[in-house]
Design the sequence.
């Protein structure tokens, strides 16, 4: 029995896959639970058209993310923090990096920045996830604040 999955099903397939399963499993579990529907010829055509449109939209989103990645690579980030020698009084987190990017003119949500907690001055890199396929390494520097 061929079915089209509406959701990811473990050990069967991912959303929008056309898979073959045993008739009882499809009729008695997957279809009534809303995990799948029958793979009729018309349903396959609709699925193909939806996937084509989704791929076109996805390509545009990926291109936008890549252009944003290039602009982020060009930005120099220097974060001033109170320090005693090399050790910081406090720490620098992804929130501080997001604020520094905002001052530079790029608004990135802090959830998409992974840097770890930094407690010393120096040069570091943070990963910024702009898209599932586009991750940028963003170099930044922590400097001691002039008193």
Sequence:
């Amino acid at each position: 029995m061929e079915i089209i999955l509406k959701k990811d099903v473990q050990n069967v397939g991912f959303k929008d896959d056309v898979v073959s399963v045993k008739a009882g499993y499809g009729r008695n579990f997957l279809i009534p639970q809303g995990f799948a529907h029958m793979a009729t010829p018309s349903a396959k055509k609709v699925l193909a058209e939806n996937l084509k449109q989704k791929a076109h939209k996805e390509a545009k989103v990926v291109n936008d993310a890549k252009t944003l990645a290039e602009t982020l690579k060009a930005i120099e980030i220097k974060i001033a923090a109170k320090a005693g020698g090399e050790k910081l009084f406090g720490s620098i987190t992804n929130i501080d990096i997001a604020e520094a990017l905002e001052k530079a003119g790029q608004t990135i949500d802090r959830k998409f920045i992974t840097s770890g907690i930094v407690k010393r001055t120096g040069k570091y890199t943070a990963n910024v996830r702009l898209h599932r396929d586009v991750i940028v390494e963003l170099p930044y520097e922590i400097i001691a604040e002039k008193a």
In short: The radius of gyration is 24 Å.
